[in-house]
Design a protein that fits this description.
single chain, 404 residues, alpha+beta, Beta-Lactamase, Arc Repressor Mutant, subunit A, 5-stranded antiparallel β-sheet, 4-stranded antiparallel β-sheet
Length: 404
Amino acid sequence: MNVKAYVRRSTDLSRDDIASSAQSNCRSRDEPAEISHLIGQIYDTVLDPTQWTRVLETLAHFVGGTASALFVKDTARKTHNTVHAWGYDPSYTRIYMEKYGQFDPFATAQLFFEIGEPISAADIMPHSEHRKSLFYKEWVQPQHWIDAIAATLERSATTYSAFSVIRHENDGVVDDEARLRMRLVVPHVRRAVLIGKIIDLNKVEAASFADTLDGLASAIFLVNAGGRIVHANAAGHAMLAEGAVVHASAGKLIAADAVGNHALQDVLMNAEHGDAAIGTTGIAVPPSSGAGEHYVAHVLPLTCGARRKAGIAYSAVAAVFVHKAAMDLPHPLETIARTFKLTPAEMRVLMLVVQLGGVPEIAPVLGISEATVKTHLQRVFGKTNTSRQAELVKLVAGYMSPLV
């Protein structure tokens, strides 16, 4: 399978490249069946979240790994919640939450990369250095793992959610092929997770999908192949009547904001051609109201898999979810890193000063010499205009305060 070529095509599919029949909507002529089926499975989790374990297994094999998970971390409360997982040993998951999570280099590194961008250990530090760390020696290596590739799906002022695939020793470290495959599936995983949060279902029969949508607070619109609204819930009708965010023109769903409408129409045009055709862009279409309020629109294709049954009754090809965007506040640790221009290595040392204390305690955790830790620490002092570790603890505490 030429995944590299497909990744390029999947971001810019035209109408001429997609077959027109309902059956071929689920797979384009030049799209590998395996990829098409996998993307369809990802979107089916929106209607049935219990499918995530099976889907994560398939994703792990596709990317080239031995375990996979969707998880949420709350740095303010120092909690780690594995929402869905496959291939993890529960005992190691428990000790990760109890002890090793605070030493995980990926936790801090997530703040330095764009949402949706896959990262591996090599993007954070040399792999030789990673192998010397306490986290690697006591948690990664005993499981015969060697590397991981992860991507942030969503980030807020206190939490972030991510999707990860773990590599076994037999798989080797993350390579270019794994990165390409990860980039292909992450946008679809992110879209499914974000829409799933809106619906918040345990298990919904596809036939009652519209009934379920009617009870949601978010505005929901089912649209046909021409973009015409064939069903809207109560919140959707209210939003249309107000007309500040979206309205109907000749029955077609239109965003009031010109830029947002262009993005919305582009996604809807591709949605009728199936899961893969919706592509890796337009995950969160940003329509805005005349009052300057910001909204987010997510589009779920309804032409394939279990979702196809949901759309048949209304001849709908997509469901559009529109809701007010939450305040886009940066994570406090991200704010610290950007304000003081700290590198990932310097941020790791800073956080370990807060969590562990002095240089002698930090060095064995990172697997580096005390002299190297001192070098990083001196740079942190210089950039933050501090001179003592106690001042660094106070600095971080101030940014982590909910009153800031």
